[in-house]
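Ticket #4471: complex job returned nothing on first submit. Input attached below:
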Amino acid sequence: MTGKLVLENLKNRPLRSLLSILLIGVPVTLILTLVGLTQGMLSEAQNRQRGAGADIVIRGSTVQAVTSTSTTTIPARMVDKVQEQPHVKLAMGVINDRVELILGLTGLDMAKFNRMTGGFKFDAGGPLQGPDDILVDRLYAEQNHLHIGQTIKLINHDWRVAGVIEPGKLARLAVRLATLQDLDAATGKVAQIYVQADDPANIDLVAGELQRLLPNFKVNTMAEITAMYNVDQIPAIKPFTVVVAAIGVVIGITVVWLSMYMVVLQRTREIGILKALGASKTFILGIILIEAAMLGVGGTILGIVFSYGAQWLIRTLVPASFQMAIAYGWWPRVAAVTLAAAILGALYPGLSAARQDPIEALAYE
Amino acid sequence: MNNGAIIETRDLRKVYRIGQVDVQALRGVDLTVQPGEFLSIVGPSGSGKSTLFHIIGGLTPPTAGEVSVGGQNLAALSDAGRTRIRRRTVGFVFQKFNLLPNLTARDNIAVARHIAGLGSKPDAQFDEVLRLLGIAGRLDHKPSALSGGEQQRIAIARAIVNRPAILLADEPTGNLDTENSNAVLEVLRDLNRRLGQTVLMITHNPEAAAFGHSTVHMRDGRIVDRTTTNG
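Support reply: We reran it on our side without changes. The output follows.
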């Protein structure tokens, strides 16, 4: 009966109910989108690292996080030195430039890259021909409406689109290593060295030897590198998510508070009737809290639905710039936080309703 | 203080504080109501009828004096204790019907049982009461789809669904035309005669008051007269 009472109350004011659910749902969408973007982009970067076919990655000593492009501090001759080490099948130096927030341009030694990965798969065009050629992945080509032979300007340099590649192999925008070294005034240097061992059984052995050989550089196995692709390893992402979640909670509490405060005002007489029928303070508080909880549940469901919408929008409008995953693992967390916020927001109006004098409430017009 | 009476008040006083002013709503009311009695309470506005009604119904505590309802001393009860009285011992019928607008008539009745902890479905004998009230066919309508007379009969059904010892009716015909007023008063009299329901009814209307066994006249917070009518 209590459920029916609450449901009828919600149905009786559909606009208020829907607006409340919408306003609760928006911060839920924000949180799920932010987390989904973080997870999606980390996952995409992780897959690309795996797609490199390397077993070990050597990075510059100044690099902080796994996702940050390390500065070009490794002398290129180190690549040859690494190549000479026992059980090293192949060593390849690369260099990176950032062209968008999370989109990088990678300078590759194409011959070694092809040996290490089996080469790019082309959707259109073909390999790099001239020094100013560039390969772009399918998503970037679609987002920017690029075609083979077109000239694009990146890092203040004109590039000719030579090929459109399938994403998933280390680079999303690939150019010749020497060209990028020249443009970055980093001739003779690389940012990372990707190393392939002669046998998977020797990966740890090789990694250990390389770390001893290059004590001032960071040497990690690919397994370690890919494991670093989680939120905890990305500076500022976790606090940023917490801040957005906190803002969402504040919005949720405020929306529910205002909504339920209006409910209590509008239903003063009905509260008086229930009290005249012998409803206890707990019963009155209960129906207000249950109603708020139902708004919270509705807002959570709407927020989840909207997160699918956000994913569709991102895939449609900016597939190359952002990748968004559906953060299933966050649904229970977001639901719990939203419910808590809804109940917290309804507490004061609910207590006010419970404390109402039945005679005054019955006289309310 | 109990001589078989279902309601008994002695030197009952109630003072309201409105702003800085104390308003004496009841100035020593002595009243005895026997089980099965149909008592009408009449008097001008401000005479204290409603205050007496609210105290007997457990909606507000008295300032002083004694009040026993169904053998329980209301003056000694806490807010929670008075809430329990409202669940099972008294049933209210109001001038403005006071049905919950979002619920059907059936659910308005069911909610009273739910609050009293009796489940939502009335017992089988209650069907007879619904037939007596003439509302058996209107139970699936919301109040907005019911006439004033029908709403008031639903309100009566809700008030007695938990078989309270006392039915308190505050101007039950105040918002009804003559035809519906008579129908509601007949229902109250029927309930009193057939089921032995004790009824206290506040009214301004002498014709309505005549439906009771006796009439109490109030003025300035006191009972000034009690007359027996044909009922």
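The beta strands of chain B are 7-18, 21-33, 38-42, 64-69, 72-73, 90-93, 166-170, 198-202, 214-219, 222-228. Closing as resolved unless it happens again.
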